[in-house]
Amino acid sequence: MHQLVVKELPPLYQKIGDIDLNQDPKLLFWLNVVGLILFICFWWLFWRLTILQRPDFNNAHHPINLFIIFGIIIITLFVFISHEIVHGGFFWFFTRSRPQFGFKGAYAYAAAPDWFIYRNVYLIIGMAPLIFITLLGLVLISLIPISYLIILIYALTLNASGSVGDIAICLWLLRYPNSTLIQDHGDAIKIFHFED
């Protein structure tokens, strides 16, 4: 059976690329700009999906009050933590090793720096928070009281727009073959492939 992750780099594999946010502040800046644009787009999308599931939401009064402001602060922290826990859970599932978690100013991360992960597995790990948190949120739209929906829309929007780095990395990795290995250090990833 083909391994999904390996602890040591196989023979003939060499580093063929990397992304390091510490060395590329322009990339971090543009990811944040795109993330802001995505926030607006996802807000509209989740608002529309909520109205489709709960038409009464469109006619409801949505006052900005202390409850909403407090909810937004708590939800922001909760979303960032949940997002990285999902990454970490998938790192653990595939490696059976405890992942590393960290925070560097503009972003938080989960990582598995002691492992080399095959591309398709890494794509699953990378997209897991966007997919699972979004699906959970879409289910909750039908279940929670209407007064909480605005906070849920915010949480879904924040998670989706905050996935901009994950989406960018996964799109970048699609140009490499399945046999490519990725080593994730949280703020940097290294790409390895074998030389013919």
Explain this structure.
- With 196 residues, the protein is α+β, with helices and mostly antiparallel strands.
- It has one domain (21-194).
- The chain has six helices and six strands.
- Strands 1, 2, 3, 4, 5 and 6 form a six-stranded antiparallel sheet that branches.
- α1 (25-53) runs antiparallel to α5 (149-161), α3 (66-95) packs across α5 (149-161) and α4 runs antiparallel to α5.
- It is elongated, with a radius of gyration of 19 Å.
- It starts with a strand and ends with a strand.
- The mean pLDDT is 90.
Describe how the helices and strands are arranged.
Layout (H helix, E strand, L loop, with lengths): L4 E2 L6 E8 L4 H29 L2 H4 L6 H30 L4 E5 L2 E12 H23 L7 H13 L2 H10 L7 E4 L3 E7 L2
Antiparallel strand pairs: 1-4, 2-6, 3-4, 4-5, 5-6
